[in-house]
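FIELD: query
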Amino acid sequence: MWKPRTRPDTFQGVGIEGLSWLQEVKERFGIAVATEVATPDHVREALFAGIDYLWIGARTSANPIAVQALADTIRQTTRSPKGVFIKNPVNADAALWLGNIERLEQTGVPVAAIHRGCNHRPCWSVAHTVRTARPDIPMLLDPSHMSGDAAKIADLMAKIEELSLDGAMVEVHPDPKSALSDNNQQMTPAQLADALDPILSRLCLVSLISTPNESEELNWLRAEIDELDDTLWATIAARMEVSKRIGEWKKDHGVAPFQPERYQKIREKIKEKGDYALRIWEIIHEQSLNEQH
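FIELD: result
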């Protein structure tokens, strides 16, 4: 209904008019409906329309004053939602996320967390911290925002089982290319079904044999280190790209690729971090020189 966007000239949501569409869906199909809210007016309009669940997006979640205002409005409104979902803030701040959960719990309405990552990064350490601190509330995965790419959603969905999460919020559209926003991260209904089939099959099997996920903590830690590895390789690749540009500049200005004085200066600085750091840097430096030749 309301779509907080970076640019004012992009699609901002259909507004109040769309609430009647959700009412029709609820009445015709007998299913619960939900929408994102960002202001107290949004809360009042949604609850007056009989919307079952509200969620607070990552941009709003970054502002504790805004979240408190939403919580106060929920508490003061005659009609209460069945539950409120709170996404993690866009910045990697577990304490702020936990604080927002506590603010919403003061309404007396059930609260659930949605982990959507930070700027198309998983930020597993943030979710791990919150999950450890509050294992008593549900946590859902938002692989659509986490990846920003529909092709990556199926792989991320496997984390629901590995990390013992409680579900997912996935963006689905019958024709993503024609979507008014976020079309790169939207799946078709058929793609969602394909992604869910293996997960649901395994979950049914686990339910039948009642085997607890004893490796859950290890899976969280592995998820964190996998993310760090991805960041590390991306950083090294970016460094090599800059090395190529440096090499081009040196050729244009008649400067030799290898500069002994700078090499020794950086080497002494890296050496302070330990022998392992020096060995890694030597390999990176050697490859950088290769890129400059």
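FIELD: remark
The chain is about 55% helix and 5% strand.
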